[in-house]
Fold this protein.
Amino acid sequence: MNEKNYARVMELARPVLRDGERVEMACTSNVGKVSVKRQVVTAAVVAIASAGTLMAAVRPKTRYVVLTDQRLLFFDMAPSGRPAGPVLANLPRQALASERFKSALKATFHIAIDGSADTLKMEFPFPARGDARKLADALARRAG
């Protein structure tokens, strides 16, 4: 993330931080999953509209992610690529655990949330693989 976007996401996060809460890292990630149904429908519509000359791929929405010592915050990405408020999600850090980390051309892992059977998939493109490892490690449950 460039310095301007980092500064902007910090501006958005600052008003929602609690007393004594500090930011540990900020990054961008594709968050969530895209259903097979949505992928098929999108591909079919594009193929019909372009007479088979174009192909389309759908992917999860890119979000700005801010990890604090207490919470994980998600902010939207405006069409311009800049961070946009308000906070989309606010998850308590103690209820989160990273799992199933994989890294190749892109890095992915899942965040398990206490009390939920579903996980939140996080996907990072090649240039942001280091952020993926740092966030996954920060959310890893420690034995003891």
Notes: Residues 3-34+60-139 form a domain with the PH-domain like fold (CATH 2.30.29.30). Residues 36-49 form the longest helix (14 residues).
